[in-house]
Amino acid sequence: MKSRLALGVVAAVLTVAVVGLSLRFVDPFPPTRIVLATGQPGGAYDAFGREYQRRLGREGLRVELRPTAGSVENLELLLRNEVDVAFVQGGTYPLAKDVDGRLRGMAALYREPLWIFYRGKVIGDDLGGLAGRRIAIGAPGSGTEAIARALLEAVGQPATGPNFLSLPAADARARLESGAIDAAFFVSSYRDANVVALLPRPDVHLLSFQRAAAFAGNFRYLSPARIPPGLLDLKAGLPREPITLMAPAALLVCRETLHPRAVEQILTVAQAVHGRGTLLDPPGRFPTSEGVDIPLHEAADSYLARGESFLSRVLPYWALRWVLQLRLLLLPLVAIWVPLFKILPWLLRWRGNRVLERHYALLRDAEAAVAAAPGPEALRREMAGLEALRGQVEGLTHRLSLQHQRDVYQCRLHVALALEEARSRLGRSEGAPPRPAGGGPA
């Protein structure tokens, strides 16, 4: 019983150790909740965030939305571990101080053009015609502000001074409509409320990039988005003329520690939301790894190259979490208990053989001592030892398993044989008369 208890204790300790190592080095459980950084209220990131929240919630992954000023703030929140996933504008990652490489790209979702609306006479030389005007360049910490400063600086107009205002998109639109400013930058979808409101206004123009190839060559995260007349609104005929915009990609970015199954589930929703394409992007182009200027998450790379894993494909997210948890619980059973039950009979057999060998060694020594006993007193001492040994062997009947019972009884017979031999020697040494052969008087 002590041995079996010891084996049980060892198995329990090993089980706890395996579970601990699994939690430390194997994938932890997929989360039930994530925090998603979106963008300014009313913007495209905000709208897509609510759609992701609704779809992921149906699968068992609760999403908490975190409105922000935009991409740069989103990257900072990721680095501070305050959010798990964020919408980020392509080209803004170099602004993040990710010295440890803790951020990972998940996918490019769609192209979000740079819309530059302005008042006054029509500009035909890209950004140069905006010189000296009052310009809203986006909210502080937004991707719009980052790209506006980069492009203006590239054409020799550093965005400094009182003419450059860092305003949220809604404020910039309101001031542009009222004439308080002359131009405003927006990086957003064509369905953004600010774009939809400004596009039909006759007193506001949309800047078209005449040197789109040159800008794309200097800013690799930008690609030309050519919009033919009437594409955005057939009834109103908007835009009224061909327009070429420069467009970074909208990205999903996460922390490197985000669970692979959560990454797959989020990308599955991204496929459903963005895979249908838009007026600017053909169906099936997004989500993609093209245009992601952040090192890809390993699970995202696998998903984009080969699709969902088998478990993610056949199980909903809530069921997948249970399967992974059961796997962690079954791992100790497979790794510890199954081998233990296989080797337990061998261990018991080996232990029983060792116990019997030890008693046979004692019996051999006792027989040798009986043979060498110099007199009756020494023989009596050795016989007492043999009696004690017989008691020990009889006790083995209850200690050893059934497969050793035959050997135990053999050992008892051998001890009894040794005792009989010792009695015979004792009788001869004390001079006892031999028994009569005929059994009666002559």
In short:
By secondary structure, this protein is α/β, with parallel strands linked by helices. It is built from 13 helices and 12 strands.
Indicate the topology.
Layout: H1 2-25, E1 33-37, H2 44-59, E2 62-66, H3 71-79, E3 85-89, E4 103-111, E5 114-118, E6 135-136, H4 143-154, E7 164-165, H5 169-178, E8 183-187, H6 193-198, E9 205-206, H7 212-218, E10 223-227, E11 243-247, E12 249-255, H8 260-274, H9 298-306, H10 310-314, H11 317-371, H12 376-399, H13 405-429
Helix pairs in contact: 1-11, 2-8, 8-9, 11-12, 11-13, 12-13
Structure explained in plain terms:
By secondary structure, the protein is α/β, with parallel strands linked by helices. It has 3 domains: 31-108 and 254-314, D-Maltodextrin-Binding Protein, domain 2, CATH 3.40.190; 113-247, Periplasmic binding protein-like II (D-Maltodextrin-Binding Protein, domain 2), CATH 3.40.190; 344-429, no CATH class. Helix content is 49%, strand content 13%. The protein contains 13 helices and 12 strands. The chain has helices at 2-25, 44-59, 71-79, 143-154, 169-178, 193-198, 212-218, 260-274, 298-306, 310-314, 317-371, 376-399, 405-429; strands at residues 33-37, 62-66, 85-89, 103-111, 114-118, 135-136, 164-165, 183-187, 205-206, 223-227, 243-247, 249-255. The strands form 3 sheets. Strands 2-1-3-12-4 form a 5-stranded mixed sheet, with helices on both faces. The chain has a 5-stranded mixed sheet with strand order 7-6-8-5-9. The longest helix is centred in the last third of the chain and has 55 residues, at 317-371. Mean pLDDT is 86; it is low at 437-442.
